[in-house]
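haha ok so turns out i had the wrong file open the whole time. this is the CORRECT one, sorry everyone. sequence first:
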Amino acid sequence: MSEPKENLLESLLKTLPEGPGVYQYFDADKQLLYVGKAKNLKKRVSSYFTKVHDNARLRLMVNKIADIKTIKVNSESDALLLENNLIKNLKPRYNINLKDDKTYPWIVIKKERFPRIFPTRKLIRDGSEYFGPYTNGKNMHALLDLIRQTYPIRNCSYELSKENIDKGKFRPCLEFHIGNCKAPCVNKYSEEDYTQNLQEIRQIIKGNVSGILSELRQRMKASSEALEFEQANELKEKIEQITSFQGKSTIVHPSITNTDVIHIICEEKTAYAHCFHITNGAIVQAQNIELRKKLDESDEELMLFALLEFRDRIGSKAKELIVPFLPEVELPGCEYVVPKIGDKKQLLQLCYKNALAHKQERDKQLALTNPEKHSERILNQMMKDLRLKELPRRIEGFDNSNIQGQFAVSAMPVFIDAKPAKKEYRHFNIKTVEGPDDFASMREVIHRRYSKLLEEKSERPQLIVIDGGKGQLAAAMESLENLGLRGKIAVIGIAKRLEEIYFPDDPLPLYLDKRSETLKVIQQIRDEAHRFGITHHRSKRSRETFKTELNEIKGISDKSAEKLLLALKSVKQIKEATTEELQAVLGTKKAQLVWDYFHGKK
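then structure:
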């Protein structure tokens, strides 16, 4: 009879080793659930079974654990590297996922006599050399073009064995006649010279352009001094091609070499990393890495996973790692740098801009390819985060604007399916409140809006967002209660300082993850309310100012003032108008009153 799961786990936990290592969780069917690293295996693994976990997915995983296996290593950095390899090879259900499943191209130097150089998406373990992968195809093809223009490397698929060439099996093709190849197939290109060119090409692909240029200049000088002008000219053309290519590269500073740079943007469920590899002051490799979070992984875990993935992809052995924050786990033989100023700081910012651009591109792709799914996902997340009873398909926001109580207005933006519906926006001029009373203004506007909604039997919103804390929210709830709508429409308030979310009758605020889409939508509604309110407030203040000056003229009513402003656009234009222009708007008698007022006959 098999031992009960609880007893087995209890005995396993008691016998766990101390010190660094990697642990693996398995379910009852022996399927791998999770791989993790630990500074102290006993403490880390035991914590899963003694702590209360907020994350529902993590609780579910812990309930499924039926067996635990551990691998002890010498250091925490060894544990990190082993964990990374196991995750990539075994793909456990609850670990970070690499979302990007594209097959990126590589540049291959084929293992053969007189090796060919070409792009490929298949890695064949036959001893050939592979460089890459290249996420930017244009950069790869620009590099291949440089190689073809500078070096006469063959592109035919002949088997150029010594026996075949000696037997005269081949003849020069068109590439030889147009100068792209020196015909090694008929012994016109020595293997020694071909190998020399390949060595230079390897350095160029790796980004070591400065060293190649220096060597080529020395050889050109030696050829010139030996009166070998044809060879010197060939070397000069090579130098010009490589220099031109180098000028098009992203150059940072020559002192920055053999360096990896990473920045990462972590959202609630996905992380977007961008990585650079720098050689001799130039960016020679750049890649986006997208990760899907499974549990509540920290930013540090995600960044280290992406960094190790990048280094593994390109075979980087860089000793300097420029990062946005210091991770706790060190990589053997590497030094982390968190720059504050200078070229390295600019590199980090450039990395961030690339990660942000990739994230925004992904968001746009999802919104374009499946807008309904995109909106539905956001609405479901909002319903869950805000504890709503139904999807908030229609959301109405409110914000008040005034200057010391004057020209008080309120704005109401409307979002439908998590997007602004600008045709539905409304603004309100505050009518019953004197002085700067934000709470009374909120009571008035909410009452006016929803009494009209009840009267017209219009569609109710599923959510109301009040720009303000507990006071503004309470004022809004008073009006809704008077209208019999309390509990029939969900209402929240958002306080500006710490972005707290307040609910009616709940003294404690909700703090949403700063990266959550729910908070971003609420912030966007708040910002739209503020923008729309300020625009209307300025417009009203401007109109009221103009009218006040015109209304000082005896015999000129509000209606006459509006006519003048509509026709002549501003008080300045009215002052400068001729009597004929004024008469065309107001008639002879009133035009004379305006003329006399502005020209000294008051």
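The chain has five domains: 5-95, 106-207, 259-367, 380-539, 552-598.
again sry for the mixup
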